[in-house]
Write a sequence for this structure.
């Protein structure tokens, strides 16, 4: 960013006044001008630019088609948003005061309103009290004039305020995408052996609405996972935190579903991905960093949670087999690493295969795209749900059938569609559920949505 002097600042103020006069003459309508309350000479920086960037759409949404002209200019005074607004000046000023008082970032901003004659409206003439200092709650103008607070204190407050705002915003958005992905997965049909809108699949203990209940119960835990990631903590420490969040979230899910485990595996994977997304956004990293972050977060997971249990079992330690999870039993009996191994390797099934496959099939309808991607995952996935219920032979049969149906076109051909219907009927009769593949489908959709989201934000570390 360019370095400015005190002389530059004085000149910028004169230019702003001249621009305001010019805009008022051109549009003959009230003008809204928004700046960041940033002290010192370095007013144009990543923080102030991002603040104005984030607040501009908020104002545009509030005023909608009343804005006749808008622009953002940068200079010695920092980035400044100008909008000529076809609205009575006093009501426009009330909107500006509302943003300054009620929005999370409002206290960091100055939002001035000029009437069509060029008069700046004050709070006092509309019956509002003067603004309070955000550090000491005294009169803000008095604190500025007396230089009551150090520049570093004010700047740190603005940084902290913006960081907290982004943490809340990103976490809500990321968790929303995760729940969206869960709902996409359960809503597609025919999904062989799986719960959908039309069928219980191979699950007599749950239906579509049970799954909706569980997805709703996981919104808060997923938000907390994303918040845990939006942190300076190491990926390893973040993982320890989200494990605790996950334990609470599982109990909330089971309470909501009367003890039915609808999506424990998907929640485990999505919680990790939410945290990784939060960490990437906090650090100013792009989507390509996620797989590495996931590997860092889960390094040693199989050793800690599976191999150590296996070693203890082998040397004669007492192990309550009935207290083990399905994944732990599979590792003890068959050395299958399951979901833990998949995530410790950085979700290669998703990052290296299914995410690209899902993108390649975006020309299909959403439902067809989901089913086609599910089949693609099924042909490769070492599905622990199938192994828990059946055998390696059944798993191989499922993989081969999925591969064959894809080879004849899958959802793109009549023959393929008939094959999917027949597979669904067969799996429901034989109690075959490719639940592990369904979990990876949900993760695939989530990461697709998250990549789009992160690209739209174009973030940088503050």
């Amino acid at each position: 960013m360019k370095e400015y002097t005190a002389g530059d600042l004085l000149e910028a103020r004169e230019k702003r006044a001249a621009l305001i006069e010019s805009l008022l003459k051109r549009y003959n309508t009230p003008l809204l001008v928004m700046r960041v309350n940033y002290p010192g000479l370095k007013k144009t920086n990543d923080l102030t630019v991002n603040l104005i960037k984030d607040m501009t759409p908020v104002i545009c949404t509030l005023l909608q088609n009343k804005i006749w002209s808008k622009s953002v200019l940068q200079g010695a005074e920092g980035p400044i948003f100008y909008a000529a607004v076809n609205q009575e000046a006093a009501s426009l000023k009330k909107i500006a005061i509302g943003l300054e008082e009620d929005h999370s970032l409002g206290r960091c901003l100055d939002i001035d309103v000029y009437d069509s004659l060029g008069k700046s409206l004050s709070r006092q003439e509309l019956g509002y009290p003067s603004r309070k200092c955000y550090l000491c709650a005294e009169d803000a103008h008095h604190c500025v004039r007396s230089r009551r607070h150090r520049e570093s204190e004010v700047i740190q407050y603005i940084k902290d305020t913006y960081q907290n705002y982004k943490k809340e915003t990103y976490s809500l958005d990321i968790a929303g995408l995760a729940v969206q992905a869960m709902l996409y997965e359960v809503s597609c049909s025919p999904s062989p052996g799986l719960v959908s809108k039309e069928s219980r699949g191979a699950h007599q203990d749950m239906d579509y609405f049970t799954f909706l209940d569980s997805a709703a119960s996981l919104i808060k835990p997923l938000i907390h996972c994303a918040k845990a990631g939006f942190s300076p903590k190491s990926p390893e420490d973040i993982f320890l935190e989200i494990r605790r969040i996950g334990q609470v979230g599982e109990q909330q899910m089971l309470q909501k579903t009367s003890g039915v485990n609808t999506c424990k595996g998907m929640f485990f994977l999505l919680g990790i991905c939410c945290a990784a997304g939060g960490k990437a956004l906090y650090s100013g990293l792009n989507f390509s960093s996620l797989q590495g972050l996931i590997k860092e977060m889960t390094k040693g997971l199989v050793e800690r949670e599976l191999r150590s249990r296996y070693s203890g079992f082998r040397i004669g330690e007492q192990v309550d087999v009935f207290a083990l999870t399905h994944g732990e039993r599979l590792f003890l009996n068959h050395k299958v690493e399951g979901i833990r191994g998949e995530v410790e390797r950085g979700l290669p099934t998703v990052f290296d295969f299914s995410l690209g496959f899902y993108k390649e099939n975006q020309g299909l309808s959403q439902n067809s795209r989901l089913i086609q991607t599910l089949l693609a995952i099924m042909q490769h996935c070492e599905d622990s749900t199938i192994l828990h219920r059946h055998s390696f032979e059944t798993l191989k049969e499922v993989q081969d059938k999925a591969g064959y149906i894809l080879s004849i076109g899958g959802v793109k051909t009549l023959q393929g569609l008939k094959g999917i219907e027949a597979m669904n009927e067969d799996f429901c009769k034989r109690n075959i559920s490719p639940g592990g593949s369904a979990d990876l489908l949900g993760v695939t959709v989530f990461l697709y949505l998250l990549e789009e989201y992160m690209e739209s934000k174009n973030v940088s570390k503050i």
Summary: The first strand starts at residue 31 and ends at 36.
